[in-house]
Structure formats: structure tokens, C-alpha cells
Amino acid sequence: MENPSYIALSRQMALGRQMSIIANNVANMNTNAYKNEGMMFVEHLSKTKTGERLSFTQDLRMVRNLAEGQLHTTNNPLDTAITGDGYFVVDNDGATKYTRNGAFKLNTEGELITSEGFLVMSDGDAPISFPADATDISITRDGTITSSAGTAGKLKLVTFENEQLLVKEAGGVFSAAEDQEALDEAPGEIIQGAIEGSNVQGIIEITRMIDSTRGYEATAKFIKQEHERQMKAIQSLANVKG
Fold first, then answer.
1. What is the DSSP letter of 123?
2. How confident is the model over 25-42, as pLDDT tens digits?
């Protein structure tokens, strides 16, 4: 394979990975607090033995769009949304995780949990629980939770110096990267009875998918034409020598 084919193949591989990410975005258009993702592409320059400079396409990393999704009113007193920066802190079998999906509920023990069953933590790093007969649950903008039984605790909100480093996991949660520390004083506020929706814009993602598909197909066509050109050149040389 000659240099033009290698260059085209690098572009095709990057476009293939981009289409997978776009497809995942579309699949999560209705996922609470989902953040749109995309690829960061760079030009990778390389020199051949003859000193020729070649420009390859390299997908450097995945980039997450951290813009807030639209708030949807649910009037469920346990549903909470964050406006501004911040993540809820949850516990998954002893492992600390972070999420912006505030679709909470109570388990059989009266503890506040996520839809995946993770314990929602208070600012005292303890689970938040309610007596069985508690009613009139109220959550203030600073995260303080009260009910007919009194104060149940205060939701813990944290933020990070670089949110792009957070590692996405199943269940709509993130874990901190190695050596990444959470900052306690998150500036966000809590809205009770609402859920943050996905920030994916369907029309934009479909347009990106069409453009990526066309680019992929055009590159595949170029590779095929380049292969045919090489085969013809080889056949012509063979005929001359014969």
C-alpha cells in the first residue's frame, strides 16, 4: 500500500470511530443528563525515508459537551436537577461515583437512591434516609432536604477542575480519573421536581452522521481507485518485462 492509501485509511478509521460516537449520542437523546460527545481530530505529520512530509488524520481524544440539558418538570418531590456546575455524589457498593441525573427514589429501607440503586450521599458523606411515615418532602436550592419528620440531610454537590477527565461508566455515572480530586464547593443550585434532560440535538447529530457517512464513503472510493491504479501499474510493468 502506498502513502496516499495510508493517509486515506487513517481518515477512514477516524470517521468510523466518529460515526460510532454519533450513533451513541442519538441513542441517548432521551437519557437524563446525558452529555453529547464528539471526537477531537488533529493533523499528524510524518516524514518518509525520502524526506517527504505526509499528513495523517488522528482522532486525539473524545470531547464531552458539558452544556446543561433542558429542564423537564416532573412535580415528583424526589426528582432533582442541578442548574450550574456540580455533580451529585453517589455510592456504588463502597465506590464513590458522580452523576447529574437526579431521578431519585426511595428503597425499601427509606434511603434515597438513584434509578440504578446507588445510594445518594449527603454533605456528611452518609446516606440520606426517611422514616416510613415521612411526608411533605422538600428540597431547597442549597440541597437541604426536610420532611414531616424533620431535616433528613443536605445533598452533596461537588465539581472538578477539569470535568473532561471524568470517566463515564454504565448507569449514567462518572468516576474520577487517577489523581483527580473533587472540589466540595460546587456553585450549582438544586431544582426540586425537575429532571435535566440530554443536551443532544437530534437534527445536528443526524447532519453530522450524514456528513461522516459521505466522507467515509468518499474515502473508501478513493482507496478502491488507488488500489486499482496500483494494480494497473503492476500489470503494465509485468507486460513490459515480459
1. T
2. 999 999 999 999 988 766
